[in-house]
Write a structure and sequence with these properties.
Largest sheet: 7 strands, parallel
CATH superfamily of the largest domain: Response regulator
Strand content: 5-15%
Radius of gyration: 20 Å
Strand order of the largest sheet: 2-1-3-4-5-6-7
Helix content: 40-55%
Number of domains: 2
Number of strands: 7
CATH topology of the largest domain: Rossmann fold
Order of helices and strands: EHEHEHEHEHHEHHEHHHHH
Structural class: alpha/beta
Shape: globular
């Protein structure tokens, strides 16, 4: 069934003490029309100051929280609890550079909506946010491996994010061209110089990459979305999850 992205519009607040991580997450979310970053805070103090002065209608739907630098499990629990009290309709997703099972359990117990490893989610952060709207608690593969011994109901029932969509026909050189020109927004002539190829060749790579990705995608996009925007979303999309086969009917079983 085709995915329709036109009816999702999420306001996102990012709190991350790492300036470069903050900018990277913001840039990835900016490509996706379903997510609109309304604030980037480098500290809890800045985050709370923004929330205090923001009208109710403009408060975030999603809070991405840097779990590594909260000050430990209790501080993380208190922050999530306070966020849920002040913005009760928001979904809080913790991001981390390393997995601390105690922090994962704390996030789940405080009723966060997910715990994601940055190196697992990478370019798929917008897809992860939207995917998580349909589940109680989401985690990435690295988190899943690290928390196998935890006896927490929400962690045990957590939904694992899908793998990224594969495009077997994309060669490494085409992938590199797509990454430079689409993901990083580099002009074609600079990307060609970076790859040591002609401008004509890199334009051919981009055109072929667009064609291949379109062939694997049934998503319904807004009519005014540029080819570059569609390419970014296709390049960063999750693989489609296989639907379980429905049980055979009695007639089929006896035929």
């Amino acid at each position: 069934m085709p995915v329709n992205i036109t009816n999702v519009n999420l306001k996102v607040l990012i709190m991350d003490t790492d300036f470069y991580a903050l900018q990277a997450v913001n840039s990835y979310l900016a490509w996706d029309r379903r997510t609109r970053v309304t604030n980037m805070s480098e500290s809890l103090e800045a985050m709370w100051a923004y929330i205090d002065r923001t009208p109710l209608a403009e408060l975030p739907d999603i809070v991405l929280l840097d779990a590594d630098h909260m000050g430990g499990p209790q501080a993380l629990h208190d922050t999530i609890t306070q966020l849920r009290r002040v913005i009760p309709d928001s979904r809080i997703i913790c991001l981390a550079q390393v997995v601390d099972p105690e922090l994962v359990e704390t996030a789940a117990s405080a009723h966060a909506s997910g715990f994601l490893l940055k190196q697992d989610v990478r370019l798929q952060i917008a897809w992860a946010i939207v995917y998580g709207l349909n589940y109680d608690f989401i985690i990435t593969s690295g988190v899943s491996r690290a928390v196998k011994g935890l006896f927490n109901a929400r962690v045990f029932r957590a939904k694992l994010l899908p793998e990224k969509r594969e495009y077997p026909e994309l060669t490494e050189r085409i992938r590199q061209a797509i990454r430079l020109c689409v993901v990083e927004g580099m002009p074609a002539h600079l990307a060609a110089d970076e790859m040591g190829i002609s401008l004509h060749t890199i334009r051919g790579y981009i055109k072929e990459g667009y064609r291949i990705m379109e062939a694997y995608d049934a998503t319904e996009y807004p009519v005014d979305m540029t080819p570059q925007e569609r390419a970014f979303m296709r390049f960063t999309a999750f693989a489609e999850e296989k639907q379980p086969k429905s049980p055979s009917s009695p007639e089929e079983s006896t035929s």
